[in-house]
């Protein structure tokens, strides 16, 4: 870092991982970055303090627990000293919930919140003592980049009492509002390890069929939001002949890299941030992170901006494409619950469902396979157990058996339309359920 005017400040804050977490006191409230931004060395050092009884108890907030968090603060021999709170149930959380059900002992609490509101939560509601996050190397201006993680990280970093960063040379440098200055950081550690590699899910036949039905709804020049999974992969494959699509998305994924390379995504027609790929969190492969690094077309912003319904609505022809766990005959959508337990969370789905419906020429599309559990259950059901998206906001619904638009339809028309795209094996019982309550 020779010649960098901020190198002295950097060096004065540089410590080993165990030294960096040493000031954390009993009972502190700690937040950890999402997914790829989870700092493995810092988390391991903090878990060691808890395991050794040097630290007795902490309160923890996080979203999307991946391997670094699962093997440290959420590990079975550590979790009893952690009051764990998640904003989105995923990964390691599922095993923890199963354990709760089996033993009757609660170890994980879920905090319902729209992704757009999460930065406000960590800046105004939850008093954060310490925030832990992975960042890119410092540039000549003294700035680290949050890289894959803006989400609530940029807000937490600026509102916590103590900011500890783990500098990883593999974290991409991303533009937009992703920068944290060395003067804002309390402690720095360095750790050169590969970022977690999460390639795109391969599309299946159902995903490809759904993609062929959804693609015609996406006009050339549209701005899109698309998630990850087999169905989104199938939709992405069906967009290869489109032109001048733009990205304003909660999640940037490997599928989008391919569409950018093929010239499908250019951003030239975007109403806001033309020619820029705007996102708030990225999860992908090593290739994805390399493609993002120092790429001036990429801009990340906090989820309070990217997921803001008012910002989404300013884009003409905004097409939001999401999936769901189930949808009922009234048009209510459940993207959170399976059985009696939280399985994921609202995330940013409602933000984009509502925002796209307010966009000039915009469309909200919910795409899901007609069955789950290897065909054992229907994803179109008489009544959902938890409502993520209100029936008043739901527009297009697509399965491999067809696509319907619920906007403007009566409850009877909605029920019949949804039954028509349910798996044939479940249509008779859905008709019977609808007749039982005189829905049809």
UniProtKB/TrEMBL annotation:
Positions of the Acetyl-CoA hydrolase/transferase N-terminal domain: 7-193
Recorded GO MF terms: acetate CoA-transferase activity
Any one Gene Ontology BP term: acetate metabolic process
Domain Acetyl-CoA hydrolase/transferase C-terminal, first and last residues per copy: 284-434
Keyword Nucleotide-binding tagged: no
SUPFAM superfamilies on file: NagB/RpiA/CoA transferase-like
InterPro entries named among the record's database cross-references: AcetylCoA_hyd_C (IPR026888), AcetylCoA_hyd_C_sf (IPR038460), ActCoA_hydro (IPR046433), ActCoA_hydro_N (IPR003702), NagB/RpiA_transferase-like (IPR037171)
Keywords, ordered alphabetically: Transferase
Family named by the database record: Belongs to the acetyl-CoA hydrolase/transferase family.
Protein name (record): 4-hydroxybutyrate CoA-transferase
Species: Cerasicoccus arenae
Upper taxonomic lineage: Bacteria, Pseudomonadati, Verrucomicrobiota, Opitutia, Puniceicoccales
């Amino acid at each position: 870092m020779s010649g960098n005017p901020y190198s002295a400040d950097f060096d004065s804050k540089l410590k080993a991982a165990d030294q960096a977490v040493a000031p954390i006191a009993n009972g502190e409230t700690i937040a950890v970055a999402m997914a790829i931004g989870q700092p493995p060395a810092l988390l391991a050092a903090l878990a060691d303090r808890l395991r050794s009884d040097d630290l007795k108890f902490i309160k923890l907030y996080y979203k999307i627990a991946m391997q670094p968090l699962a093997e440290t603060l959420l590990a079975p021999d550590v979790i009893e000293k952690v009051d764990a709170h998640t904003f989105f149930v995923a990964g390691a959380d599922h095993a923890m919930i199963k354990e709760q059900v089996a033993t009757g002992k609660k170890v994980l609490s879920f905090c319902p919140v729209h992704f757009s509101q999460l930065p406000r939560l960590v800046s105004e509601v939850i008093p954060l003592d310490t925030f832990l996050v992975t960042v890119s190397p410092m540039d000549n201006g003294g700035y680290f980049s949050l890289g894959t993680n803006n989400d609530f990280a940029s807000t937490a970093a600026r509102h916590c009492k103590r900011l500890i960063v783990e500098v990883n040379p593999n974290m991409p440098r991303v533009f937009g509002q992703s920068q944290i200055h060395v003067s804002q950081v309390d402690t720095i550690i360095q750790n050169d390890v590969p970022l977690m590699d999460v390639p795109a899910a391969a599309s299946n036949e159902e995903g490809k069929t759904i993609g062929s039905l959804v693609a015609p709804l996406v006009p050339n020049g549209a701005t899109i939001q698309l998630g990850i999974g087999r169905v989104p992969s199938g939709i992405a494959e069906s967009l290869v002949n489109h032109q001048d699509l733009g990205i304003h998305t909660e999640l940037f994924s490997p599928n989008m890299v391919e569409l950018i390379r093929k010239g499908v995504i250019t951003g030239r027609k975007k109403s806001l941030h033309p020619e820029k790929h705007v996102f708030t969190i990225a999860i992908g492969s090593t290739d994805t992170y390399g493609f993002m690094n120092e790429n001036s077309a990429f801009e990340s912003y906090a989820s309070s901006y990217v997921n803001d319904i008012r910002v989404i609505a300013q884009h003409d022809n905004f097409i939001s494409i999401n999936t769901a766990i189930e949808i009922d005959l009234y048009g209510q959508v459940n993207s959170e619950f399976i059985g009696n337990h939280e399985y994921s969370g609202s995330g940013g789905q409602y933000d984009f469902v509502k925002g796209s419906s307010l966009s000039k020429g915009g469309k909200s599309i919910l795409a899901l396979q007609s069955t789950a559990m290897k065909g054992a259950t229907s994803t179109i059901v008489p009544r959902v157990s938890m409502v993520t998206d209100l029936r008043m906001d739901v527009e297009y619904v697509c399965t491999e058996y067809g696509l319907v638009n619920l906007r403007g339809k009566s409850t009877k028309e909605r029920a019949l339309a949804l039954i028509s795209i349910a798996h044939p094996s479940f249509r008779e019982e859905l008709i019977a359920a609808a007749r039982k309550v005189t829905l049809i």
